[in-house]
Structure formats: C-alpha cells, structure tokens
Write a sequence for this structure.
C-alpha cells in the first residue's frame, strides 16, 4: 500500500510544531546510536500535519490488526497535542512508513484502546506514548530508537519527568532495551492479558 500524501512534503514540516519544539527533531534524527541501531536508509521523523489521521489509521491497521482503533482516535490525538505526533518519511519516495503518537498525561493512568480524550490534564506529570508503529520495510534500521529519542526530546522540553506506555505482548524486550521498566500498575484488559504498563525516568 502506498502511503504517499497527495500534497507531498514541499513545505517545511517543522512549521507544524510550536517554535520551542522545532529544533528538537533535528537533534533526535542526528542522535548518535550504537552501530547496530543506526539508520541504514533515508528515513527521518517529521511532524505530522493536521490531516494525517487517515494515513496513520491505514498504517495502524497493518501493524496492529489485533488492536484496532478508529481514525477519529488519531484525529483526536492530532488535535489535542500535534507536537507529539510524528511521521516516518522515506526521503526518496516521500511515502509515510510509520508514526509515533504521544502527549502529556498523568502518571500510572493508562488509556483504553480506541478511546477519545476530551482534554489533556491541566497539571500533567508524565509523557504518555500512545503508540509507535513501523511498516516492515523500515524495521531493523534504528528508526524505532530514533522515534523514541524524538519523543524524549519533546517530553524533556515540556519539563515532564518520565515517559509511560502500555507494552503489548511480545514487545517488552524492545522497551526494556530502551530503558522502560514495568511499574506493576494494571492496564485496560483490551490490550490483552500479557500487556504491561511501563515507565522510564528522564
């Protein structure tokens, strides 16, 4: 499936970020990674445009077929906190090959799948990573690590002390390699019996 956006990427995508966040993606994309984790393809993370919900939903169907979410959920996250919504673009083809969604939240409060959020907390105390998804052709090239680094930069800029997430069954080793640890807090049963709530201090 071709995820090329009809409008292309001729505009500077950093315009979609608040001024204070614009330098952060460049830093994250240049972050030095171990040799076995460095990108090996012309991929990079860019800010998602406000009309990216359909593209994100199409990728989510492929990557998470057992955990479906409506397109309106992704539109909701884009509207609530666009600075935490990033897309993985292939510089050659301009195809979109992945996404990451995150936003300020309250520690130890996981969010149900397919849930619309009416508003963000007034006093957040963590950054919540809703999802990161990569199409198969991008995997093993360090782009998951680069996406997490980009989110960590944004969370740090928001002065939030930690990042939290729900790890699906089988994903725990990836997250623990990135410094996340189980907290023992319960998660919504729609994630599956083996899902775990994880946190990482910043």
């Amino acid at each position: 499936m071709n995820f090329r956006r009809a409008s292309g990427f001729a505009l500077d995508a950093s315009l979609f970020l608040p001024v204070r966040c614009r330098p952060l993606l460049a830093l994250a994309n240049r972050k030095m990674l171990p040799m076995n984790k460095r990108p090996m393809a012309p991929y990079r993370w860019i800010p998602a445009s406000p009309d990216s919900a359909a593209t994100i939903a199409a990728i989510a169907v492929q990557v998470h077929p057992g955990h479906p979410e409506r397109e309106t959920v992704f539109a909701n996250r884009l509207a609530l906190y666009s600075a935490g919504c990033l897309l993985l673009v292939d510089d050659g083809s301009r195809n979109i090959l992945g996404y990451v969604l995150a936003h300020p939240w309250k520690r130890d409060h996981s969010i149900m799948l397919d849930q619309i959020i009416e508003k963000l907390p007034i006093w957040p105390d963590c950054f919540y990573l809703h999802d990161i998804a990569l199409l198969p052709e991008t995997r093993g090239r360090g782009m998951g690590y680069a996406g997490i680094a980009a989110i960590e930069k944004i969370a740090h800029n928001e002065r939030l002390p930690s990042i939290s997430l729900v790890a699906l069954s089988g994903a725990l080793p990836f997250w623990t390699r990135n410094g996340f640890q189980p907290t023992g807090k319960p998660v919504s049963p729609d994630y599956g019996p083996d899902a775990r709530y994880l946190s990482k201090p910043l």
Q: What stands out?
A: The domain at 13-201 is CATH 3.40.630.30 (Aminopeptidase).
